Amino acid sequence: MTRFSSRVCLLVSIIGFTVQPAVADDLQTIKQMHPPVVASVGEQKITVLFLKNTLKGQTTGAYVPGGEVFYSTMSATKPELTFVAPLIGEEIASVFFFERKFPERAGKSLYVLTKLKESNAGFEGYTYWTLELPLINQGEQLSLRFFRGDPPDPELQNCRDGRDLENGVDVACGYKDAASIKKRLADLDGKIIADSKLQQDLRQRSPKTDGEATTIACPSPEFSAFLGAFSEHPDVQKTFIQQPLQMVTTVAGDPELEMQKNSLSGDQLKFPIIPDLAKREVQGLTLKVKEERGNKATAILQKPDTDYVIEYRFVRGQCWILSEVTDFSL
Questions:
Q1: How far apart are CA 113 and CA 185, in angstroms?
Q2: pTM (global) more than 0.70
Q3: Which of 79, 159, 224, 257 gets the highest tally of CB atoms within 10 A of its CB?
Q4: 115, exposed or middle or buried, with CB in 10 Å at 0-12, 13-18, 19+?
Q5: Are 114 and 133 in contact (CB under 8 A)?
Q6: Where are the chain's structural domains?
Q7: The domain 212-327: what is its CATH number?
Q8: Cα angle vertex 304, ends 247, 295, to 5°?
Q9: Are 89 and 157 in contact (CB under 8 A)?
Q10: pLDDT tens digits for 190-231?
């Protein structure tokens, strides 16, 4: 209780309030990790504090976070100090704001990018984490929240930058500064908004039933837009696929590898034929348009620096149709 009281005194003194002096020994247990930041939504403002806990190296048998986030109301008559979240890492690399647009998570958030220096038998370098703290404006009261139940964007967590000593390779974190993280968040927003609009369009324009047959409207005559919808929605894949579908696979031959072709239809086809973006990111796969000429187009799914390569060939009639899949993987 004494330690908590001294912490509160220090926090309040940082943002300019008059407090009783704390004991010098107590003050050594915490210090600022980053200068205070003023967060605002409309006319409402709060001061956010980032504190480093120096007890981390002095405590055994219990978990002590590297730092903690607090916020204080800016009322001169009744200031309040509120704990928000613990921080992973020992250094704050950046603090910034970003406003997400898609309805389920629309609103302004404060982001804290932390890093931790690692040096062990398996890795030498830094590990980065990104913490999102949404700003909640309820009436005349602004608050900063930490939603433990919300899954974080996985690529923004435990992002390593340095040398993988076990495998003898350099690894690079693509999200170790505010600019790269903002771009990633904007890309995610754009994709979710586009998917939401597509789903709404499909709901409005389909299904159309003729007896028991159900059809889905063509997502787009423009191939790259069609491919985006095709790769994200199994129902779209099931609709815009030629049956039987030509499946070409690489098989061992004598003396060279051979390409074996099969025609598949009905229950022989396994969906999704192309994994969606979330699965591709987890598996390290990339999907892009390889070629488009007239009424023919080819998309390629691959894993860089490996022999994993699959080509998808489409033809266009009233809409694009997948006609052949060629798996070049060994």
A1: 14
A2: no
A3: 159
A4: buried
A5: no
A6: 2-188, 212-327
A7: 3.10.450.410
A8: 45
A9: no
A10: 777 776 666 666 555 544 444 444 567 888 888 988 998 999
